[in-house]
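Re: the 105-residue chain
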Amino acid sequence: MANTNNNINTQIVLFPMGMNDFKKVIGDVFDSRIEKLSVVKETRVKEVALYTRNEVLDLFSISAPTLRTWTKKMIVPKPIRKGRLLYFLKNEIDNILIKRNNEKR
């Protein structure tokens, strides 16, 4: 059998570079990945304009039961629920209002 104690001090060279160069390459890779992640995080954090349920009721001059019916019939999109409160995406509601105004003309 071969003596395994001799293999402990053997070094394997995978890359022909010094330790400082290797650390710099690894650091650069991590920095670029972290930078990409921070860009993704920033785009997710952007605030979304919302209408409350009461604002939508006022905009359409309708009652709460009518809004529920319209949601079920998909006349308005489903609201976003935050706890007990309901919110609607402002751009979706605005597009419906614009479409309704154009149809009246």
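Helices lie at 19-45, 53-60, 64-72, 90-104.
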